[in-house]
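Box S2. Input/output pair 1.
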Amino acid sequence: MDISRRAFDVILMSGQSNMSGRGGIQVKHLEDGSVYKAWDRIVPSECEAEKGTILRLAAALEWEEAQEPLHEDIDTGKICGVGPGLVFATTVLQYYKTLGESVPAIGLVPCAVGGTQIKEWEKGGHLYDQMIQRATVASKRGTLRALLWYQGESDTLAAENAVEFQQRLKTLITNVRSDLHIENLPVIQVGITAVNHPFPELLEKVRQAQLALELPGVFYVDASGLPLLEDNIHLNLEAQIKLGKMLADVYIKCILVE
């Protein structure tokens, strides 16, 4: 796909399943009593954009037209649905259009993998190295503008992980900025949420660690209160649409305008 004649803003998307996207995932019950999950394949109008304006870096490190599920070839072995990425990108493009200036293309770089703890994103591990590789490849074509990070649910199931979460997150962001040679790469992190959590005190500990993180250029949006699937932890389609707009709002106000 020829995108060489227009400005190109690159957005890195990483973390775990709620960034990957489970919007529209349905639980199917068969007559024999078995249960399976499937995406309903409903793509909301908020994801629609003019052809060639939003691209994604596929697992094969090639640019292609962005479409849901954005993480299908990254978060493999799981059922992926709609995440916040496309809604984020379309909302940002709408903002650019209001300026009456040249509108860049947006390149989304999906890296999220469901069910992962933050220690699995340590420098030198597969997930971290893959994310840096993908960001590096993407940056050869455009300008890396921000990292969208949504992770932490898997760290609420053991006290040790919750206690270590903030320092691990701080180290992760520092390493990403260093390895990508962008000292103040903006990061927008999403505050985790869940309902009827088995360890509510650990959920709150991780949430407070996210909120209290003190690093320049790190911004925060809160998923608390957004509607969830029946598993009480994954955002539903409506929530993913709202989250995409929330992320775009912070990106516009705190990164583009600044």
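Box S3. Input/output pair 2.
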Amino acid sequence: REDRFVLFENTYLLQLGMVTPKIDDAYILTKTIQRQLFDVARVVSTGRFPILLQGPTSSGKTSMVGYLARYTGHRLVRINNHEHTDIQEYLGSYVSDESGRLTFKDGALVQAVRNGDWVVLDELNLAPTDVLEALNRLLDDNRELYIPETQETIKAHRNFMIFATQNPPGAYGGRKVLSRAFRNRFVEIHFSDIPNDELEIILQKRGRIASTQSKALVK
């Protein structure tokens, strides 16, 4: 079928996904968030590059990807990484079916690659080395994913897009410094802390509370 697009804020053409787009009115667009959102949308509009969002905890990295996914009608798959993340969570593993036979069940990443979903890999710099190595071909221009257990190479669906988030290494315990070669496969966008006056606005609107209450909570 033909590609369809939506014009984002009269600026960027973003490819539509396969579910009904939705504008999330509960997502509060402050000045800082709107500026960062435009940075992300600009890269998404190219339809070519994986995106790495780096910034402090609670700076809105993952929620922003979710907002854009809903806006463009893409299903979003979220994979949380930690030092014990198993590559099977990404690629899949053999399981017993109803008749007791072993069959291969696709992991979360494989399903997204096949279906054309968006994927956000949270805390990427906590992931073990074998997980990072498995992503290399998918992050290249050929956008392929190899499954060693089945010896299958999957070409990514044209709607598929990969995002990753991480906290700055050094500032947070356990975060490794990703190699320059690996990071060069992404477009990096750096997030800053949301200013207190904007946090007050978010709390006030989301919590439907008085401005005096939101000020007290932020302090």
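Caption for Box S3: The mean pLDDT is 93. Residues 7 and 13 are 5 Å apart (CA to CA).
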